[in-house]
Write a structure and sequence with these properties.
By secondary structure, the chain is an alpha/beta fold. The protein has a domain at 7-184 and 230-252: Rossmann fold (3-Layer(aba) Sandwich), CATH 3.40.50. The chain has helices at residues 15-26, 61-68, 84-87, 91-95, 98-111, 153-171, 197-211, 231-242, 260-271, 295-301, 309-328; strands at residues 7-10, 32-35, 51-53, 73-76, 116-122, 175-180, 183-184, 215-219, 225-227, 229-230, 250-252, 257-259, 276-280. Strands 3-2-1-4-5-6-11 form a 7-stranded parallel beta sheet, sandwiched between helices. Helix 6 links the parallel strand 5 and strand 6 (175-180). Helix 7 packs across helix 9 and helix 7 crosses helix 11 (309-328). It binds nicotinamide-adenine-dinucleotide (NAD). Nicotinamide-adenine-dinucleotide (NAD) binds next to helix 1 and strand 5.
């Protein structure tokens, strides 16, 4: 890619889009357009030298055409989403993100300039029947079919993947699809109902330590398991996939399986506390166990996400702790 080619990143006020915007600027790309529906003071990161378009609703087709004008690459991260607490209770809202991907694909196709299109899919596309054990078998790409995706959010992502495939086959638009498995790290959602497990547990531990409550509430029985990918690995994987010959959906996730109880333990170790645990068994908790089978990504790139969870979590904890105390001190923070 030429360093002056226009890169469009949607959902750039959010966690992964914001991080990718910084990533490309740091690599010397001079022409980056960052787009989000949120006001700019609600973005996790705004990057100097980047064209930031705020308050732009990409469900609206005309907006998608406007932001894709002149672009060489499009990275579509915009979606109405969150952790289990959000996606289990807002299924219709999650499905409406189909409008974003539909209009963005049409705009990319009709731009006459877009050479590559990236779609951020999710491990939630996988058949839920294959995720009922805590010591689960890691999911291979072909395990998405026969389809029985996570209700709402997962089906929307699966449909988005299919649209990418058909836009490529029928219209010649080069599309790349990654199935992210639980991405975490600094500059992401850490409070307010959309946060994911690592951020939620870090915040609860920080709060318990600060208030001296000595207690933590855990959603479910704590035995549910997941793998978590650190943001830096996610960015590297996106870059590799977008600039490769790989055209089929690819797992982008860590294969280090962690239970929620272990996540709490690691957070306690970072904080230097030991908390009493209560388990909220009727809280949203998603599938019982999920891990990423990385055979295909290793074959394609001789690489896989490899940041040890304990290291990434320490970085994340430190950032959330700073946000927590900044907010407590009345400073302006985005959570
Ligand atoms: P995020 O919520 O931090 O970012 C998404 C951004 O999209 C938000 O800033 C939001 O304001 C914006 N947005 C929502 N609706 C919009 C609209 N109509 N028009 C314009 N912008 C809109 O989420 P994230 O964690 O950065 O995730 C980015 C993408 O990756 C999403 O598509 C998500 O589904 C996917 N994904 C993320 C994870 C994860 O663990 N973070 C896992 C699987 C898939």
């Amino acid at each position: 890619m030429n360093k002056h080619d226009l890169i469009v990143i949607t959902g750039a006020g959010g966690f992964i889009g914001g991080a990718l915007t910084r990533y490309f600027r740091d690599k010397g790309f001079t022409n980056v357009r960052a787009v989000d529906i949120k006001r700019v003071d609600q973005w996790y990161q705004t990057v100097a030298g980047v064209e930031s378009i705020a308050g732009c609703d990409l469900k609206i087709k005309e907006n998608c055409y406007r932001v894709c004008r002149g672009a060489t690459e499009v990275y579509n991260f915009a979606a109405d989403m969150g952790g289990m607490g959000f996606i289990e209770l807002h299924r219709a809202a999650c499905m409406l993100s189909v409008l974003i991907n539909t209009h963005m694909l049409m705009a990319a196709r009709d731009s006459g300039t877009v050479q590559r299109y990236f779609f951020s899919s999710s491990a939630c596309v996988y058949n839920t029947q294959k995720q009922q054990q805590t010591d689960c078998t890691a999911l291979k790409e072909e395990d998405a079919y026969p389809a029985m995706a996570e209700e709402g959010y997962g089906w929307e992502k699966l449909f988005g993947e299919q649209m990418c495939r058909h836009f490529m086959n029928d219209y010649g638009l080069e599309t790349h699809v990654a199935r992210f498995h639980n991405v975490y790290g600094p500059h992401g959602t850490w409070d307010g109902g959309r946060e994911k497990a690592p951020a939620a547990i870090c915040r609860k531990v920080i709060e318990a330590k600060d208030t001296g409550s000595g207690e933590i509430e855990i959603w479910g029985d704590g035995k549910q398991s997941r793998s978590f990918m650190y943001i830096d690995d996610c960015l590297q994987g996106i870059d590799m996939l977008m600039h490769s010959e790989v055209r089929e959906p690819l797992n982008l996730g860590s294969s280090e399986l962690i239970s929620i109880n272990r996540l709490v333990e690691l957070s306690e170790e970072i904080a230097g506390v030991k908390l009493r645990r209560t388990y909220k068994l009727d809280a949203p908790k998603g599938v019982r166990g999920r891990n990423s089978d990385n055979t295909r990504i290793r074959e394609r790139f001789d690489w896989e996400p490899n940041t040890p969870f304990s290291l990434g979590l320490a970085e994340t904890y430190a950032w959330i702790q700073q946000q927590y105390f900044d907010r407590k001190a009345g400073k302006c923070t985005v959570c």
